[in-house]
Design brief:
Elements: E1 3-7, H1 16-27, E2 31-34, E3 43-44, E4 49-51, H2 52-67, E5 73-77, E6 81-83, E7 86-89, E8 91-94, E9 99-103, H3 118-136, H4 155-160, H5 167-172
Parallel strand pairs: 1-2, 1-5, 4-6, 5-9
Antiparallel strand pairs: 3-4, 6-7, 8-9
Helix pairs in contact: 1-3
The chain binds zinc ion (2 copies).
Amino acid sequence: MGINILWDQQYSPGLSLPVSRLIAMLLERDTELVEYPVLIEGYDRERDQHDAQKILDRLQNTVVRRYGIQEPLLFVTARDLFVQNCDFVFGLARPSAGVAVVSAARLENGYYNRTQSDQDTIDRLAKEGAHEIGHLLGLGHCSDTECIMYRPATLDELDRKKKQFCPACRAALPVSSGQ
Ligand SMILES: [Zn+2]
Ligand SMILES: [Zn+2]
């Protein structure tokens, strides 16, 4: 089973291939950069953020349904995301629909007044992207702070995660038919 990656056209296109390749490596699954027209909804003017649930609604109700997508779909965007009762989220998954979103907004060094680094952004997007796809493949959160499925509250916690699943999470991943 492969992974579809839909890249927000408004976000650095040069990062799409390295992120896609790293996610494929982490999950040991093929990834494919796909292009579908998608109208992004859920912008909240007061918060200057997007409601992640509304983005998933749109992915589920138009993209997945209209194009009959069977495999997990990850949307990568730079729009800052929130969910109810949460100031922000790095990403969100809806396993019942096979769709997930990850945001680069708080993954870039510039957001924290640190020196910009594409490699840092690529690593973080891949870790969080693989984390959300992990949910789509049936995994829950992990207490191992170095595991991809650990839920980081901060950028530093995210950076502390390794670019790998712990043995238990790795074993829980469904076997890819492509292997
Ligand atoms: Zn999670
Ligand atoms: Zn784990």
